[in-house]
Backbone:
């Protein structure tokens, strides 16, 4: 690895390649750009050759932000993506931005997101309820009171008054980025002191009313407690998905939760989004041409999520505190405005091409549009709306600030777009334009910062893959404890996801297990019999525009011994499961979570998985519409068991 | 009889406007959206404040929305006003309905199908909220419109919805607009919409 003074990561071989193609030494700024686009996260350098094997027949737009299938006049666009690394460091924001990111992929193609699914893996539940640790603010005697059940603490009008007053304050503070809510361990005269970093300490509450607050935010305080780690991750991720998905009004319809100790420090958070688009109105990122304007819409660019692409391409170490700056901050309200504004702008056909700002932010979105469309771009950093004045030039390019989209527009349409954006109270800036030469040019006012061929920037040199040997030799003889599925007995997880918004969802994941119990009650069975039974990871959406139903089945395979056999059988089982319910399988999306590809047998298992997907999907005659690969899923506890996750879609025409 | 004229107020962050519109159109009503920044000038028989997270629920749910021109110009007493979920929270914040909605008892979002008592009937409607715990000092029993059978969120007197007959304002936490269609299995929302129609 070549480390520059900017701490960029490009391999020696890649550096030589750049130098040769460029005919000169790249400057520091350019090297920063390469470090992001050449990262595994952006370039798929370990997986792209193998991914070409996957069957694509009958899929539409499988090379775009999301892929899909056709239903009459409409298209269902869907994609699954991982957000494992951010979730291990900051579960709440990691999961929330995971939801936000995948929604943008679907939205960028002018599809209204209509459902979310997730497949989550955490450490074993045995570890998730350890003896509660006294939190930093618990004094003598406080602790017992704090753990009393909610209904005991809740009595009394005083409490309610306090709660009605205080909760909003905390809720508000949650949205102030870069501040942390801490409580001083010292007692004041009246009570304890609330310290918000950056503000004067506020003395607020008497001890007796601290109870609820403590429990509510206890998970935050226990950040450094390893005993709380598992609990913190599970609760944080579920809350993140819940807060974000619910706020933007997209139902979370299908959920799979598995527990296994190998995920204790490296949880897997795979989220898929399903969007509905009119077939003729779909936007892509490959239709830009010379002489158009680049418009950046949404949040002002800040330093959050900086270098996230490179971050996701290395294994997690103990440098978690340092990594925190790499986590994007979620803002669901901004996203909701962005969704509505984008759909209104797209519906008036004001945009030529669109790309979301995901990993490596402005850099990857602009370079991808240029590369796919066969033109070049010229960007002026001075024109970008910035939220943090101290941000450096390369940080603007790489920042992964959430809730931003890139539009490619004709100059004459800008006023009309601006009018709609103002209505939704969104900011925008014209950051540059497309040019004829296939070059990627970045300026800062008059200074030229980078001038690179697009192809060189986007496509890293090919690397040799080490497939290694069969894993059987390593795992053989070991007793592998089966993983635990918490499906069906965890209504407290599913109940936090709004599954009914949108009035399309047929089943309730939360009530499915409760329903079984209630059905035993003969009296109630009559009342409830009109509610169909469901599994938490299966659901059905009513596409009333085409008068049909969409069957959604989310599942994953924690590879134990034989990757090919296990993946192959899981896909066939899922297909059977859909068929039994009357749905014709139509397409699948995958998210492949693997360990470090440089160390065998990861690549061997990866290849076997790809071959299994290929074989099963060819047999079923369904395309792999989209996908995502996440490598380097390792922590100080070791590597994870390689785990591909899938969402399979089926269609049922008669009701 | 001419078609019912229905207005649905849309804030930034509202997310049930489409569901509510579809439900109204199911009953053949004439629906239009009212943008939060516009004063309500037209005459409507019925005004819905739909569910969602107006202004991202920043500071507190409904606290910013109550300051919007649309809410300030609500034709109280003239049109029937129905707040669902976030709409209920906004109406309480704006002091158009008594009481307040605070965090659920378990301090978590609750999304499930709840069994309710409504006009002497047992019905099932979806609930989906984080702050649906109804808190009031004293409420006239006549104002209670619907109650939870299992009090999912810890509301006082299990109240799920109230009706201020004098000012003709209804607020409820459950989502009747999501329980209209036979295709989705739940149709009890129709009973609520029929009731609303009869009250106009």
Residues:
């Amino acid at each position: 690895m070549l480390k520059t003074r900017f701490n960029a990561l490009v391999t020696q071989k890649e550096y030589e390649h750049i130098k040769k193609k460029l005919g000169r030494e790249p400057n520091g700024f350019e090297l920063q750009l390469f470090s992001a686009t050449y990262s595994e996260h952006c370039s798929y350098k370990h997986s792209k050759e193998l991914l070409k094997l996957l069957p694509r027949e009958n899929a539409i737009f499988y090379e775009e932000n999301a892929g899909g299938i056709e239903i009459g006049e409409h298209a269902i666009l869907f994609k699954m993506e991982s957000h494992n690394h951010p979730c291990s460091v900051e579960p709440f924001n990691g999961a929330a931005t995971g939801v936000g990111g995948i929604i943008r992929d679907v939205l960028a193609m002018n599809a209204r997101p209509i459902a979310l699914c997730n497949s989550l893996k955490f450490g074993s539940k045995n570890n998730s309820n350890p003896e509660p640790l006294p939190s930093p603010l618990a004094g003598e005697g406080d602790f017992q009171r704090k753990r009393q059940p909610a209904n005991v603490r809740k009595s009394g009008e005083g409490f309610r008054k306090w709660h009605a007053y205080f909760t909003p304050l905390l809720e508000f503070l949650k949205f102030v980025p870069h501040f942390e809510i801490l409580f001083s361990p010292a007692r004041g005269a009246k009570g304890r002191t609330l310290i918000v970093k950056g503000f004067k300490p506020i003395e607020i509450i008497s001890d007796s009313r601290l109870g609820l607050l403590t429990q509510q935010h206890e998970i935050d305080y226990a950040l450094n407690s390893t005993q709380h780690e598992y609990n913190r991750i599970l609760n944080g991720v579920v809350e993140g998905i819940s807060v974000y998905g619910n706020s933007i009004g997209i139902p979370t319809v299908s959920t799979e939760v598995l527990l296994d100790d190998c995920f204790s420090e490296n949880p897997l958070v795979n989220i898929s989004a399903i969007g509905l688009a009119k077939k003729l109105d779909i936007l892509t990122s490959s239709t830009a041409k010379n002489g158009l304007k680049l418009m950046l819409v949404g949040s002002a660019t800040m330093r959050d999520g900086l270098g996230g692409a490179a971050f996701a391409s290395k294994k997690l170490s103990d440098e978690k505190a340092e990594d925190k700056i790499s986590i994007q901050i979620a803002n669901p309200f901004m996203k909701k405005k962005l969704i509505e504004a984008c759909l209104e702008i797209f519906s008036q056909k004001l945009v030529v091409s669109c790309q979301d700002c995901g990993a490596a932010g402005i850099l990857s979105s602009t370079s991808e549009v240029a590369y796919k469309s066969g033109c070049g771009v010229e960007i002026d950093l001075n024109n970008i709306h910035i939220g943090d004045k101290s941000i450096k030039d390369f940080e603007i390019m790489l920042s992964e600030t959430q809730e931003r989209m890139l539009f490619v527009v004709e100059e004459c349409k800008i006023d009309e777009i601006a009018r709609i954006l103002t209505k939704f109270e969104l900011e925008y800036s014209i950051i540059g334009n497309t040019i004829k030469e296939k070059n990627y040019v970045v300026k800062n006012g008059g200074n030229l910062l980078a001038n690179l061929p697009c192809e060189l920037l986007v496509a890293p040199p090919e690397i040799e893959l080490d497939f290694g040997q069969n894993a059987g030799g390593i795992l053989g003889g070991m007793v592998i404890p089966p993983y635990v599925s918490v499906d069906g007995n965890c209504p407290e997880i599913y109940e936090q996801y709004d599954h009914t918004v949108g009035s399309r969802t047929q089943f309730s994941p939360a009530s499915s297990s409760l329903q079984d119990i209630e059905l035993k009650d003969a009296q109630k069975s009559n009342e409830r019999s009109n509610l169909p039974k469901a599994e938490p990871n299966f659901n059905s959406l009513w596409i009333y525009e085409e008068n049909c139903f969409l069957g959604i089945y989310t599942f994953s395979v924690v590879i134990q011994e034989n990757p090919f056999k296990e993946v192959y059988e899981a896909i066939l089982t899922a297909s059977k499961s859909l068929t039994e319910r009357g749905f014709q399988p139509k397409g699948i999306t995958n998210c492949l979570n693997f360990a470090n590809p440089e160390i065998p047998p990861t690549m061997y298992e990866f290849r076997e998985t790809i071959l299994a997907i290929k074989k099963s999907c060819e047999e079923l005659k369904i395309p792999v519409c989209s996908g995502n690969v996440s490598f380097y899923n390792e922590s100080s506890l070791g590597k994870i068991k390689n785990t591909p996750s899938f969402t399979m879609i089926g269609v049922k025409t008669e009701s | 009889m001419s078609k019912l004229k229905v207005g649905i107020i849309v804030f930034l962050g509202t997310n049930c406007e489409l569901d509510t519109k579809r439900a109204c159109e199911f009953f053949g009503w004439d629906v239009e959206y009212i943008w939060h920044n516009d004063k309500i000038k037209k005459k409507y028989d019925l005004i819905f404040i739909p569910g969602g997270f107006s202004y991202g629920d920043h500071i507190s749910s409904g606290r910013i929305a109550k300051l919007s021109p649309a809410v300030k110009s609500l034709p109280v007493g003239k049109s029937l006003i129905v707040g669902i979920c976030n709409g209920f929270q906004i109406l309480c914040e704006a002091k158009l309905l008594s009481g307040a909605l605070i965090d659920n008892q378990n301090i978590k979002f609750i999304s499930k199908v709840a069994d309710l008592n409504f006009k002497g009937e047992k019905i099932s409607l979806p609930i989906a909220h984080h702050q649906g715990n109804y808190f009031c000092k004293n409420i006239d029993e006549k104002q209670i419109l619907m109650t939870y059978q299992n009090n999912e969120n810890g509301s006082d007197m299990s109240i799920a919805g109230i009706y201020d007959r004098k000012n003709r304002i209804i607020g409820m936490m459950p989502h009747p607009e999501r329980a209209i269609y036979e295709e989705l299995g739940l149709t009890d929302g129709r009973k609520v919409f029929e009731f609303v129609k009869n009250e106009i």
User: Anything to note?
Assistant: The mean pLDDT of chain B is 92. Chain B touches chain A through 47 residues (CB under 8 Å).
